Amino acid sequence: MESNKQTAWEKVEIARNPKRKTALDYINNIFDEFIELHGDRNFKDDKAIVCGLARIKEQVYTVIGEQKGRTTKENIERNFGMPNPESYRKAIRFMKQAEKFKRPIITFIDTKGAYPGVEAEERGQGEAIAKSMFEMSKLKVPIIAIVIGEGSSGGALAIGVANKVYMLENAIYSILSPEGYSSILWKDSTRYKEAAEKMKLTAKELYKLNIIDKIIKEPLEINDESFMQLTQKMREDIKNEIIKMQKFTKQEIVQDRYKKFREIKEFNIINWGG
Question: Is 170 helix (H, G, I), strand (E, B) or coil?
Answer without folding.
Answer: coil
